[in-house]
Amino acid sequence: MKKHTLDISAKKIVMALEQDARMSFAALGDTIGMSKTPCWNKVQQLQSAGVIEGYSAQLNPKALGLTIRALVHVVVDFEHYQAFEQAIIAHKAVRSCHAVTGDSDYVLEILASDIEAFDELLRAQLSRLPGVQRFNTAISTRMVKNNGPYAAMLP
Questions:
Q1: Hey, how many other C-beta atoms are within 10 angstroms of the C-beta on 9?
Q2: In terms of CATH architecture, what is 68-139?
Q3: Per-residue pLDDT reduced to its tens digit, 52-65
């Protein structure tokens, strides 16, 4: 994907939308000091350029009964990495998967309802995925930071 350099108004728009993507274009324009139509046009440009990929609700996993969050470092036999990735993409309990450098090949973010369900998930499902040689698990005791705004990282 092509890297896009954002002008000041585009940066203001993405910062505001990361805080509240449900605001109207009139409210967004008021927030960033731009009238509604130019603001709408700018958002459309950001969407067309792929800077804005979509809009979604942020759910509270604890309110949904998902009280266990773990990071699972997985070592996979290289010959099976494609099958492993396909299985991970299809697996509903895997929130995210990152291919990484270092001692493991992947880091998975897993959520489960309780420690028993998590143990079952590891033993009966994840350990049997294609190419899995071993894994190391760290249970999250609390979330210190989640979903830091991308716009704040821009120069």
A1: 14
A2: 2-Layer Sandwich (3.30)
A3: 999 988 899 999 99
The 3-class SS string of 26-86 reads: HHHHHHHCCCHHHHHHHHHHHHHCCCCCCCCCCCCCCCCCCCEEEEEEEEECHHHHHHHHH
Q: Which residues of 23-45 are buried (b: 16+ CB within 10 A; e: fewer)?
A: eebeebbebbebeeeebbebbee
Report the CATH architecture of 8-48: Orthogonal Bundle (1.10)
Domain extents in the chain: 8-48, 68-139
pLDDT at 110: 96
C-alpha to C-alpha distances, 90 to 22, 30, 98, 133, nearest whole angstrom: 30, 42, 15, 20
* Closest C-alpha among 108, 110, 104 to residue 78: 104
What is the pTM for the complete model shown?
Answer: 0.83
Q: What is the pLDDT of residues 108-155, one digit of tens each?
A: 999 999 999 999 999 999 999 999 999 999 999 999 998 888 888 887
